Amino acid sequence: MNEDYPPLPPMQTGIRGRCPRCGQGHLFRGFLTLAPRCEACGLDYSFADPADGPAFFVICFACIPSAALAVWLEVAFSASLLTQLFVTGPFMLLTCIPPLRPLKGWLVASQYFYKAEEGKPVRRQEAG
Fold it and tell me: So where are the chain's domains?
């Protein structure tokens, strides 16, 4: 990290979609598309690779309750397909889509804060 910028907690910057270095610039260009760089401090976001992390967390914490709701509606009320569609569908959309952006921002900010990089094998030099 640069001495000109104090370390900012990933939770503070990432959730808000702000630059992990300065906390001022925007992290996203679209809903989930990362901007190429910060417009305030010029930090290049090419280091960021959250991969499928946000989707994994959403599946674990949002899709499972949605599926449980669908099963409960079926078992308790023998809900028709239209009822399932109009009750479970919006519930699933409301619990799955909104958390994606804050989670992705948090993961990108965490990568910057902790200086995370791709793992590389360590090769020992042979004694000569």
Answer: 10-113
